[in-house]
Specification:
The protein has 14 helices and 18 strands. The protein has about 425 residues and is α/β, with parallel strands linked by helices. It folds into three domains: about 5-200, TIM Barrel (Alpha-Beta Barrel); about 205-290, Leucine Dehydrogenase, chain A, domain 1 (Rossmann fold); about 295-400, NAD(P)-binding Rossmann-like Domain (Rossmann fold, 3-Layer(aba) Sandwich). About 40% of the residues are buried.
Length: about 425
């Protein structure tokens, strides 16, 4: 199946030469097309012809009329079927779009597209996701299928938006003409967009049935998509997201998930696990089976530290893995934030995510402190340990690789 063409939107803060540099960077990361919108940029803020020489240009009319120079330079011209008035575009350039303000039934969606469209025009239908459920995803897939029957699969894109929409957009993308993605950083053109790096990685890989993904908060640094089979999605959610309903809704479409902070305890309870925290879900027919492969990582780190008497900063999902992996000669002393008053000596393990501010009272007297995060978060934690008088030991990669090997083996058994 042909992959959707990857579209990135020019952020509103970028103008002139900065816009050209952004387009060049997006192309190098695998983008196929650049979108420029009239609600984000005035006509004189960008050189449309120069941008079009770097990436194919898609110009979108949003409230403000499209400048003629943008239309002339563009490969596609996006006009809203409700608000544009006339679907005006040079021959072969029209992308007709509709942006619903609520979730629709398939019949409601199809009625929006009953009017005639110019030959060859692309069709983009967008709806909010609403509450995640298997039935809701099924409706969106049916809408996509019916629009493809009417207009041809090579012309249709169906998108959904919202704080938990990312995995549903990923499912829809397999039969879309276009996929709108984010290049990274704090800004996205719409809630629920996948990262360009993940979508491009999937496009390069051999397609296989059943997606994989990682669920967590602040996980843009995660290396999981780089080492696990594709397609693999980074699903970054707010801490209070309805993750239980989301994994149930995605059961038909994903064969497994990696689970990271803060959802390990919640999904352990939701799946009826016998342990307090899990980090892996594997599809077993009509339900999820849960595991904690962090025990493999914990065992590796404890071996590197030589075991013995260790303090542990924090007592969440990682703590549960350390308890499970500890041998008879390991004595683990779990310290909660409020209980830390004296400087810590000896050897310990830092389990708090880097987004959590450590207590002001935390100090070390030359203690060796293992960091089980990796990448930029690990470096930030290491700096904090050093500032407070400790010696950081970067063991996150060892933990990550050990637990990931076990995850991969489990996902291969999914049914």
């Amino acid at each position: 199946m042909k992959s959707a063409r990857l579209v990135v939107t020019l952020p509103p803060v970028l103008r002139g030469p900065d816009a050209l540099r952004f387009a060049t960077e997006a192309r190098s990361q695998g983008a196929d097309m650049l979108e420029v919108r009239t609600d984000l940029h005035p006509a004189d803020a960008v050189d449309a012809a120069a941008l079009a020489r770097i990436l194919e240009l898609l110009v979108s009319e949003r409230g403000v009329p499209l400048p003629p120079a943008w239309v002339a330079a563009a490969r596609w011209v996006d006009r809203d079927v409700v608000h544009a008035g006339a679907l005006d575009a040079p021959a072969g350039k029209l992308l007709a779009s509709h942006h619903a303000d609520r979730p629709l039934s398939t019949d409601e969606a199809l009625r929006l597209w009953e009017g005639p469209l110019p030959e060859g025009a692309l069709v983009k239908h967008v709806e909010p996701l609403g509450e995640p459920s298997a039935a809701r995803i099924a409706v969106l897939l049916e809408t996509q299928a019916r629009l493809s029957e009417r207009f041809g699969a090579e012309r249709v894109t169906v998108l959904t938006m919202g704080p938990v929409a990312l995995p549903v957009r990923a499912v829809l993308s397999r039969r879309n003409q276009l996929e709108y993605v984010a290049i990274g950083g704090d800004w996205k053109a719409a809630p629920g967009q996948r990262l360009l790096a993940d979508a491009a990685r999937e496009a390069r890989a051999a397609a296989r049935e059943g997606r994989l993904g990682i669920l967590g908060t602040s996980i843009s640094h995660s290396r999981s998509p780089r080492i696990h089979p594709q397609p693999f999605d980074r699903i970054d959610l707010a801490e209070d997201a309805p993750v239980e309903a989301l994994v149930d809704a995605l059961l038909p479409h994903y064969r497994g998930f990696a689970i990271t902070s803060p959802f390990k305890p919640r999904l352990a309870r939701h799946t009826g696990a016998s342990i307090d925290a899990i980090n892996t879900l594997v599809r077993r027919g009509d339900h999820w089976e849960s595991f904690n492969t962090d025990t493999e990582g914990a065992r590796t780190v404890l071996e590197r530290l030589g075991g013995g008497d260790l303090f542990v900063l924090g007592d969440g999902g990682v703590g549960a893995a350390l308890r499970a992996a500890a041998s008879e000669r390991d004595h683990l002393r779990f310290l909660r934030r409020a209980s830390i008053s004296e400087p810590l000596k000896g050897t310990g393990i830092w389990t708090w995510p880097d987004r959590i501010t450590p207590p002001e009272t935390l100090r070390f007297e030359g203690a060796r402190v293992a960091v089980i995060a990796y990448g930029a978060p690990a470096r930030r934690i290491a700096t904090e340990i050093t500032r407070r008088g400790g010696v950081p030991l970067l063991l996150g990669a060892a933990w990550f690789i050990a637990q990931a090997r076990r995850q991969r083996a489990l996902w291969e058994t999914a049914t």
